Amino acid sequence: MSQFKPRNPHWEARVRExxxxxxxxxxxxxxxxxxxxxxxxVALKARPDLCQQRGFxxxxxxxxxxxxxxxxxxxxxxxxxxxxxxxELKINLMSxxxxxxxxxxxxxxxxxxxxxxxEVDVEAHARSQSKLIARMLATMICxxxxxxxxQEARL
Length: 155
Description:
By secondary structure, the chain is an alpha+beta fold. The protein has one domain (11-144): Hotdog Thioesterase (Thiol Ester Dehydrase, Chain A, Roll), CATH 3.10.129.10. It has three helices and six strands. The chain has helices at residues 11-20, 23-28, 59-75, and strands spanning 31-36, 39-45, 82-93, 101-111, 115-126, 129-144. The protein has a six-stranded antiparallel β-sheet. A hairpin with a 3-residue loop joins strand 4 (101-111) and strand 5 (115-126). The termini are far apart.
């Protein structure tokens, strides 16, 4: 059971709707695998076009998967009329990303009014085994009175 209480009673629908608008996750095939207040797992099936030259899942894809899991873990606890934004992240790529499926498991460590700290473990799954390939620590900011809908590009 989660130790966190969402500030929006419609948190789950809001998270799923926002994730559905994630065009990059759609492009690479990412999907929500698990969701609870303060936690979000994002999964991805292995594909050759997402790999680097040696056949490992590209570090940028691994990072994007982890960042997305972190963002939606934090978003699940934010009030209505707000949007999350990554302000800092640090990732350790600990092992070559080889597998059939990858899962980034986000978990909020601390949820504050403005900043939320999230830890994400990324696992590679092959057959019936899993291996930890990366760990991320990220800080998300809660942008209040900000729509989560697409924004017009401006410089």
